[in-house]
Amino acid sequence: MRFVPSHLQRSAATLDGRSAVRSMLLIFAAVMICVSAMVFTALDRVGHYANQLDENRSREAVSGALQTFREQLAATLHDYAAWDDAAENAYVQKDTSWLDRNFGEMSFDNLLFDVSLILDHTGRPISAYSDGERIQPALVDFVTPDVWTLFDRVRNMKADDRLEDTGFVSTTKGIAAVAIGVIRAKSGVRSVAREETRYAIFFRHLSPATVERLSKAYVLPGLTLMPPADQISHMVPIISPTESVIGGLSWVPRSPGDTSLAQVRPLVWCAVAMIAIYMLLLFVSGNQALARLSADEATAFRLAMTDRLSGLANRSGLFAGLSDLVVKAQSEGKDVALLYLDLDGFKEVNDAYGHATGDVLIRSVSAGLRVLAGEERVLARLGGDEFAIAFVGFDVHKTAAELSERVLDFLGEPLTMGERVAVIGCSIGLSVSRRGLVPSEELIRRADMAMYRSKDDGRGRWTLYDPSMDEEREERNLLELDLRAAIDAEEITVVYQPIADSRSFQIYGVEALARWTRKGHGPVSPDIFIPIAESTGLIDLLGLCVLKTACTTLKDWPGLALSVNVSPGQFRDPAFVSRVGKVLEETKIDPSRLTLELTETYFIQNPQRARKTLDLLRQTGVKIALDDFGSGFSSVGYLRQFGFDRIKLDKSLVDSVGENARAVEMLRATVALARSLDMPVTAEGVESEAQAIALRQAGCDLLQGFLFGKPMGAEDIAHLRRTGPLLQLSNIA
Question: What is the pTM of this model?
């Protein structure tokens, strides 16, 4: 063995150690270089991804803002174009001044639209306003080729289409969203010939103020409207209906990735050994980026949960807030109360004063409810004229009752809206979840049911949910099922009440009335099953069953006339006229012997459609009678407009005969009015000889009531025909 001196051994060991250290240092350095390279590469990728993610989010937000901007204008146009009053004044009254006031002048200081045009089918302007000021007939500043393209689309739409279209165009005022629609009734029916159609056109320009609002609402710093010549990466182009770029919205990229890298890169260069700290800083920086993204998402979520008009929570916001209250109640042992409000006179205000006034009313009500509800309660607008207030507590029944009374007092007072004053009132339904055991969906259902009970009981009140309401609804559902089965099985019977000639008191005709004996329960009053049939859509089948049975029976009674009641649900059915004609054809009954009795409700609500249906019915040969005259609001104008073949006085007028001289004078005046319009008069509800004498002297030609006979079977009617007068003349002075 070779001997090596100790100092050489130590020197070799030292060299070996240094080499090892050097190697370790080199390895460590290489590792650090590799780690640093990997870290920097990773950081660059993270920064690029964060920048790209932020830009994609911003691009989607800008696209969504443009889409929402256009859809809001489309919704506004739909509210104005599909409007019964607008159709009435555009086509029937042809009141250009009304169109100017309700369309053109509304463009002044209006966040929803700033230019309003109304054109005829050829494109000729009828009304043109910009920012509340009338525009000269030459509309080249606004009606550009792009607008004509949209106009041609709407003009060539079929009657069953939506009859509206939207897009973006460039005008002399700048870039704007434009919406074009056919002015028509709310039902959507085009009531005039295509050549007489009027078209409403709304513009909403992307003004600097509008772009600034979009920038704030969608958290897009530096949002700017760009000309079409500028093409940059962070810009969403605005496309016209002719597929040309007319401009774009650009924004200032926030580049969160670059910001993060600028913060952490010096630390990495200065202290590679402190990679853990660097990673921590990176983690913190990443959290900051995530926090910013979370804040953006929270803003978008908050907007999605907020009603745009009132600023309150919307339906989704109510569900979320109510679910949180239920969880809180379960954890704290408290109760949850929900108030479901429905404004009683909102539709009338909207119809009388227009949608703009209705919007002001909604905002006024929302502000008042916000004060009454307080800060700790969930307050939401569920759409239309419905609101909800939810809260938790230990004595919620008392608190909810007190709050309901305050709300009723508040909404019972006149509300001032500029120069207009409205009195609306509301109906409230209450439901309570003990210890949060009732889920939010069920809580809303119960409150909604209680609210409808308040409406049924006369409105302007609050009602607490009671389990018996579910039992009543269940019983109503069972009645509906049994009624449907009875109609299918032809178990509905028809009885007939005689109608007497006022001079001879001989039987003139009969009125057909439906009767139903429910299996296992016995007879069901028409006051119960008729409303169920109307609300469930069974009234068409039920009415057709009565009409067919009565017409078949009428063949055995030559010379008698037949009256059949028709509900508004039947009358608004497009197939109703053809069904009546089919029954007449099958039974071979002379149409002039059949009189259809209708109440005034549908005539007042839909006069144009009602008149059209009446014309079609008259072509079949049947007669039309206005039922319950004197109990509603029919005017002389309506009587002349529809030209009824007969008027049937309401029982309330007959009952008042004999009470005082004024009642008799009112009766005579009513009959004289009908006579002046060449309309025969039938009086129903006659129960005494004195009434019969007074009605005959007043000029009524037909009388009906228990005095002459209650509703009876066909055999009894046949017997009455053989017995002579229904009332002996000797009994009458």
Answer: 0.49
